[in-house]
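Re: that chain you flagged

S.,

Sorry for the slow reply, it's been a week of failed gels. I finally had a moment to sit down with the sequence you sent. For the record, here it is as I used it:
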Amino acid sequence: MIIVRSPLRITLGGGGTDLPSYYRDHGGFLVAAAIDKYVYITLHKTFQPGYIVKYSELERVDQASDIRHPIVRAAIELVGTDDRVEIASMADIPAGTGLGSSGSFTTALLRALHTRQRNVISPHALAEQACHIEIDLLREPVGKQDQFIAAYGGVTCFEFNKDDSVAVTAAAISHEVLDNLEDGLCLFFTGYTRSASAILKDQDDKSKAKDGSVIDNLHYIKDLGRRSHAALLQGDLPRFGELMDEHWQQKKQRSADMSNRQIDEWYVTAMRNGALGGKLSGAGGGGFLMFYTESKRRLLHAMLEQGLEEVRFRFDFEGSKTMMQ
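Prediction finished late last night. Pasting the structure tokens below so you have them in one place:
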């Protein structure tokens, strides 16, 4: 039995500039944090030949090429494994909630397959393989941050270079500031799940078409990411909260599907009850509302009255990890 976990993530600034359609022309930057909510993959040797794959569905097939789940099929074809294997996935948070579950799933699956093959793989190579599967092989309109933050963990800065290389740097934030940031960030589940692909495809298509408004918006978001990083380095968390709000107002301009009336009402309620800034996690359209506050009890009480449930978390500094083999 092999058990691997990869963390989910929150984006602290610069989200959206990690799509190839943008960074290949302009370069991208963002800062993200891995959190202690995970996607788990288990691999187990079976008695009879064939592949058993368990996720929201159950598959039993004789050949890897017959597996319907595209990421599982592509990962097995890339890394290889014998045909007496059962693969199962579980997660602390459902997919489609804006916390990067697809990248976490892919990195965990790849690490499990490499562990089975007794391959040693670095976090960087793991992230690159996950990106290769999702972006190059499956042609998903996604960026690179989810795979990289899942592989590395921590509170981490990423420079996405025009030549497709990625520079990874741990954010040099003091322990005291990290503790205060962790305490002040709140996640609330909106009850909406969605596929990020539709929203990201719209951005991707517009970027490829050199749509000036989207490109200018992403330039602005990239600058906001750098300013957010600077605020964190300086320990100016109220400023970081204000930049989150500025980011959300910019983010909503990229797509009409980014928000809806109910989400906007919840956002206003939060801002009136102690939140200094916030945004929807991930591509938008649903998932989790994230806020920074220095009046946590007041904010929690107000959002509870709105029927929203907080999901508590801490930062994860381990990244993708084999738990048992």
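What I noticed first: Residues 35 and 316 are 5 Å apart (CA to CA).

Talk soon,
D.
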